[in-house]
Every structure is written in C-alpha cells, then in structure tokens.
Amino acid sequence: MNLNYLSLLDTDALKQVIANFDRHAIHHPQTARLSQQKLDAIERLETRPVESPVYGYSRPGLASTLYLHPEPFVCEGEMYLLGTVLSHFLSLYASVNSFHMLTVVNTESQETWKWTERIGQHPLI
C-alpha cells in the first residue's frame, strides 16, 4: 500500500488509515467499539503550508490542527498520546527536505497541545 502524504491530511482518509492499523480491533469486538468511538471523536483536521527558517533559508512544511471531542477518551492523557503517535506517523510521510508540525485541540475546553516540527522521513526518490 502506497500512502500519499497529502491524502493523509484529509479527516476521512486519516480516520481510515488509523482504522487500518488497528490490529486489536479485528479480534476483539469491545476494542473495535472503543476504537470507533475514538475515531468518531476526530471532528476535523485543518492543514496549512508553513515555512521555518533554517540557517538563513526557509524550509517548507505543513502545520496540521486536529480537533478532538474528549468524550470517548478516558482522560486528556489519551488525547495527548494519540497526538504524539500521529505527530510521529505524519512525519514519516513528509519528505526529507520538509517538516510536519501537529497541534491537537480539545473542542470542549479549547486546551491545545503542540508538538515541535518533525523533519520528514520519506525519501524523495
């Protein structure tokens, strides 16, 4: 399966990719139900191009903001953990000469968590 980085920046596509990687849900109906509730908590994903100065040059990148409804999560720590995993995951598909930066917003309290720029890991060729 060849994933396109830009397609991962769509809310529905991101939900589908996360669901595809959820191996525990295949064999455990309760886990599948909880996972689906957490996927449904993803309200929207907004992505915009940004630039970051590096040694006098600007490096292109993308900044994404993920809006999560907190209800299906046991605590805010679960929301933070999801953001941490997604921050690493999305950087795997950004090219090596760019970066990705993620922000997660709790839609009830408006609390935000920001992750630093992660240099892309996907080779150009």
Automatic annotation (TrEMBL):
InterPro entries, per the entry: T6SS_TssF
Domain of life: Bacteria
A Pfam family this chain is assigned to: T6SS_TssF
Name recorded for this polypeptide: Type VI secretion system protein ImpG
